C-alpha cells in the first residue's frame, strides 16, 4: 500500500514540475517559428540596413565618392567637384542627396563628413525623416517568453522549489525504509524511484529548453549579413579616406563659426593687463592724495623739503 501511494504521489509531483517546462517549450517554439517567418518576409533596402547598423552616412558618402561628386583629401576634408556643384545633378536616394546638400552649404570651405554627421541639424532632420518612414515597414517581433521579470511568478517558483525539496526528502525516506513484497510492489517502487530521480533534473531541463528554442537576433543577422553595395565597391584607399573623414568631428568645420582657444587666451591676457593698469593708476592717485594732505597740514614746509 505504501509503494502504491508513493508511486502515485511522486508521479503527480513529477508531472506538476515538468508540466510548466513542457509548456515553456511549446510557447517558445511557437514564438521562434513566428519570429523567423516574419524576418524571412522582410525586404530591407540597402540604405535602411545601413541605417540600422549606424552606417548610413558612410554609405551615402561612398555613393557620392563613386559618382565623382565629392573629393576627400588625406586629412579628411571634403570638397565638391564640378559635378557636385552642378545643381542639376542630385542622387535619387534622399540620404546621399541630404549629405550632398550639407556639403554644398559649407562650400567652398572644407568640411569633414564626421562634422556634418555630428553637428548639421538639417542633415539630422532628413536622416530622422527617412528613419521614421522606414521604421513603420519593420515587423513587430513577438517577445520570447522566459519566465523572468515577473516578481510574483518568481516568488511562486521559490515556494514551489522549497515544497518540492521537502517532498523529495520525505518521499525518499519512505521509499528507502519500505520493504516491497512481490513483483507488483517492486514495480511501484521503481516508478517512485524514477520519479524522485527526475525531480532534481527539472532545472537543467528548463535550461536545455531555453537553449534549444533560442532564436537569437534574426533581424540583426539580416541587417549585418552584407555591407552597403556602394561602400563595398570602394577600393581600399577610398574606404580609408571615407572612414577617416567620418571619424573627424572637430578639425574641418566648414562655414561654421569656430572660437579658437588662442583668442580666448589672448582675451584673458588683455583682462590681466587691464587689471594691472587699474591697480597702477589707483596707487598713483593714492600717492598724490597723501602728498596733498601733507602740504595742507604743514603750510610752512618748503617745497621739496622731505623732513
Low-confidence stretches: 257-266, 280-291, 299-307
Number of helices: 14
Gross morphology is rod-shaped
Gyration radius, in Å: 40 Å
Number of strands: 2
Describe this structure as you would to a colleague:
The protein has 307 residues and is mainly alpha-helical. It contains 14 helices and 2 strands; from the N terminus they run H-H-H-E-E-H-H-H-H-H-H-H-H-H-H-H. The longest helix is centred in the first third of the chain and has 39 residues, at 2-40. The radius of gyration is 40 Å and the shape is rod-shaped. The termini are far apart. Mean pLDDT is 79; it is low at 257-266, 280-291 and 299-307.
List the helices and strands and how they pair.
Elements: H1 2-40, H2 46-52, H3 56-66, E1 70-72, E2 78-80, H4 82-85, H5 94-106, H6 113-119, H7 121-135, H8 151-177, H9 182-198, H10 202-212, H11 218-223, H12 229-233, H13 236-247, H14 261-297
Antiparallel strand pairs: 1-2
Helix pairs in contact: 1-8, 1-9, 1-10, 2-3, 3-5, 3-13, 5-7, 6-13, 8-9
